[in-house]
Structures are given as structure tokens and as C-alpha cells.
Write a structure and sequence with these properties.
The protein is α/β, with parallel strands linked by helices and about 290 residues long. The chain is built from 8 helices and 9 strands. The radius of gyration is 18 Å and the shape is globular. It binds hypoxanthine.
Amino acid sequence: MSASSQCSYKYEQYKETADWLLTQTHIRPKVAIICGTGLGGLADLLDNKVEIPYKNIPRFPHSTVEGHAGQLVFGELKGKQCVCMQGRFHFYEGYNTATVTYPVRVFYLLGVEVLIVTNAAGGLKVDFKVGDIMMIKDHINFPGFAGQNPLCGQNDVRFGVRFPCMSDAYDKDLAQLTRQTAEEQNCASFLRQGVYCMLAGPTFETIAECKVLQMLGADAVGMSTVPEVIVARHCGLRVLGLSLITNKVVCDYDSQEHANHEEVLEIGHMRTIDFQRLVSHVVAKM
Ligand code: HPA
């Protein structure tokens, strides 16, 4: 059965996927990178690439949405062995949180120790600019408030404890390394830090919803990332989260602006080079 709709998976299923992947490549990644919307170009930077389409990977979820083919790319980024997800699974596509996070447990079983999650997000903080890169210092799991937490269900202690801590979800040392790298790579002027709030999507937020999120202390809003981070922390991966601010959310009833996917893609394209430079130099120093 393909992993596309199950509500939970067994250890043996993740293991079967991981063991199969290990037969397909000599790369033994310590770092996994989830490429967000418009940021898939990161995977193209890898040397000695081995590209494996999701549809060829046993038990791996695969996208049913056209244009979202998706593949794992194994290779070396500045000499460091990595695996990149080119295309992630979103809750709004109809996947449950167990399926959205399936790859993360596979990464853990491959021996990955650090997860870099990237995404496109709307800026809620007033002084954020389009094109800023926000290091995620904390998150708000809005779907979790409504019972959508990827760790709901039976806990398997081979992955982690029943009640994992989330107050240290984003690794402080990796954040410091990123800040230092941003200085060296001329990215400091657009590197920010803040709280990422996940909503289920696929609708962009109403004005009233944006005001609520701002009141709650969220600095950026998006439709991904949080489930993967929760599952990564559960199994002990260190996490670096980076949001590319692709638009400012609309908070004014007189505004003529409308959030749209084309703008998100355009800004992703505009910042691609800077984003890739920053991430690859951070990985090089790990
Ligand atoms: N809202 C939610 N998700 C997003 C946005 C936004 O404004 N921009 C990019 N992803």
C-alpha cells in the first residue's frame, strides 16, 4: 500500500523505506533539507547527485497534485552529505499529519541529525519586508489547537517520548551559526528572527485572522513546517527553520493588495541565490 492516506504508520514501514533508500546511494546524510515553495533550487546545488522520485520509493507518500512531482535528492553540499526534499507534503493537499511527516522519520532512520526546514511565509510583523529571511525562533501550531498534532495516536518509544518538550524546538547553536554566516555572506541586512504560525490553508488569511495572529505574537504565517518540526524534535533531530517572507499580510480594510501564489513564487525566485548561498554556507560549517 502506498503511504498516501494512512493515519499512522508502523516503525517497520519507515524502516523499510529507509533501508531501501540506503541501497540506492552511497550518500549517508547527516543533514536533511526540506525545500519550501519556490526554494527547490537548493537541491540543484548538490554535487554527486542521486535523484529518486517519490513515486519510486517504497511506501513513500507521493503527490497527487499536478506539477508537484517531488523527489529526494541525495548528494554533497560543500562536501557535506545531505538529502533534500524537492517538494513537501501539505495538510491542505488532503494528507494527514502522519503522512506529511513520513519523510522526517525516514531521515532519522537514515542517520540524519539536523533538519533544515524552509518555507515561504506571509509577514505579520510590521517592520518585516518582502524578501526578508526569518529564522524561526518558535512556532504556534494552530492546527494542533484543533487536534491536528502529528504525534497523536500510539507512541513508539523507538522514535521518542510520549510527551516531548517543544520549548527548545529550534536549535540555538544553529541559529547562532546562521547569524554569523549571514554576516559573512552579506545576508545580515535581510536576516530576521521571529515566531512562525502555521495555519492549515489553503485559503490565505482574512484581515481579521491576521489581526488575531499579530495579537498572539506571530511574526510570520504559513501553511507548512510545524508538523515536520514536531516529529523531528520527537526523535531528537536538531532543527533550523528559515522562512522567506514572500508577501506582507493584508491588515487594512482599505488596502488594494491581495495575497496570491504568483507573488509567493516570484519573491522565492528573487531571493533564490541569497537563500541558497546562506543555507549552503551554514551546512558547510556544521
Ligand atoms: N499566508 C499563508 N501562507 C503563506 C503566505 C501567507 O500570506 N505567504 C506565503 N505562504
